[in-house]
Amino acid sequence: MTMPAPPVRREGLWIEWTFALITLGSVIYSLWFLNHNNYLPQPFFYEPNDIFADWFNTAYWARDKGTYDVWTALYPPASFVFLRLLGVDRCYVVNRFTDTSLGYDARDCDWLGLGSIFALYVIDVALIYITFRKRDKVTALPRTICLGLGWALLDGVERGNLVLAAFLFLMLAVGPLLRSSAARAGFAGLAINFKIYLIAAFVPLLLQRKWRRFEGIAIATILIYLVSYAILGRGSIFEIIRNVSSWGSAASGDPLDLWTATSYAPWLALLNGGSFPTLLLLGSRLTETLAFWIPLLLNTVRAMIVFAAFLSWLRPEAVPTTRVINLGLMMALITSDSGGYTPVYFTYLVFMEPWKHWEQKVALLICMIMGPSLDIPLERVMTVVRDTYVRHSTTVVDFHISVWPLIRPFVILMVAAMISLRTIRQVLADIDKDGWAQRWRFRDDVAFVPWALSPRALLQRRKAIPAPPATGEPLGD
């Protein structure tokens, strides 16, 4: 008689379910708060009348010829072609001189655009679960809750940001959902054409000598850009570069930029800029201390990422491809600030890691802590009267200094540090056990350490016929 298999027990599973339930509870609380106050609580965006504005303002400029010279858009043309397809044209009246937020009125008219926001969100959550279930059925559900119902993705919904589409394309490009190399390259090209900074996720493929895959992504990116440029009729490379340069040099130093900050870029702009009296409010000693330690911490983590990337190039088969992609992505995300929704990218890749080594545990734990849509107010700054999009009412809003804007950039740096440290230790362990000697494909690599045993040396030692090259990617640990 066959005995039934024992139940699967996983270390840390109770922690994952705890944060999943907290995240679910935070969603219920946010909906309750929205129903009673007609706006969402912190950490969501501070302007109650700006819900879905990223989608509908961008959709307006998809129909206005001043996209790049008046609005100075950073999006490539593909984004605007996408929004023209998923919108009702009659809802967008081209009259840029009467309204500063030209997409506001369209929110009550463009049913297709509004429905597309929620359709993309539902697809995102479904793909998250399918991906995690393919990796590990036991942890799939709690991790899906932490990410799919987490603040970062919900912030993308509240803003109506194109991160909902770019994230979908990224999952199809790097996850285990597609087998076709051409399809994966196509979705990678779409992701880059929707969010330029996502190119940082695919450049590290060169570290693993995945030449054809990178070439396919580059070709797909260029073709998608050229086709969308031809359809839209504007958005040349020169216009995009000009706008990116002007946005990069226009650091405002506005304290409200810290509200959803995911990097220290707004902090440095605030400390070094002259438009806000930082010195008067914080004092000279604290200002000088922050101005010294923040760049030091940031550059230390950058150096860790660079060293981990170098070791990934030295031992490409010792590191999972998703980890290498995450290294490049996090280098971009900690350097510039692209919105509170950007943690969805690296959290998705971190959640592909097993609960095994202490660095992975810390990275997973931080991403789970970031999940709930909760914040802790420390001190009320001001009380203002604002119009709301929900029920089109007028309400009183309290602005607070809260915990997450103060610590979010730091904890994201710690995620980057942990995945870098895990990569460094993993490669050093591979060198220690002569992992290179088992990989005939890399027999012509240079031995950067004199004691490393090459595949040819191992062949000589064993006096055996060489085994065929290993195929497939490491499962990673």
Give the arrangement of secondary structure elements.
Blueprint: H1 13-37, H2 53-61, H3 77-85, H4 111-135, H5 137-148, H6 151-159, H7 163-174, H8 181-194, H9 199-202, H10 211-232, H11 237-249, H12 265-272, H13 278-282, H14 284-314, H15 321-335, H16 343-350, H17 358-369, E1 377-387, E2 394-402, H18 403-432, H19 455-462
Antiparallel strand pairs: 1-2
Helix pairs in contact: 1-5, 3-10, 4-5, 4-7, 7-8, 8-10, 14-15, 14-18, 15-16, 15-18, 17-18
Q: What does it look like?
A:
By secondary structure, this protein is mainly alpha-helical. The chain has one domain (13-432). Helix content is 57%, strand content 4%. It has 19 helices and 2 strands. A two-stranded antiparallel ribbon has the order 1-2. Helix 4 runs antiparallel to helix 5, helix 7 (163-174) runs antiparallel to helix 8 (181-194) and helix 14 (284-314) packs parallel to helix 18 (403-432). The longest helix has 31 residues, at 284-314. It is globular and about 80 Å long. The chain starts with 12 loop residues before the first helix and ends in a 15-residue tail after the last helix.
User: How would you sum up the global shape?
Assistant: globular
Put simply, the count of helices is 19
Overall strand count? 2
Mean pLDDT: 86
| Main beta-sheet strand count, sense and barrel state | 2 strands, antiparallel
Taken together, the total number of domains comes to 1
Question: What letter string, H or E per element, gives the SSE order?
Answer: HHHHHHHHHHHHHHHHHEEHH
For this structure, the quaternary state is single chain
Computed structural class:
mainly alpha
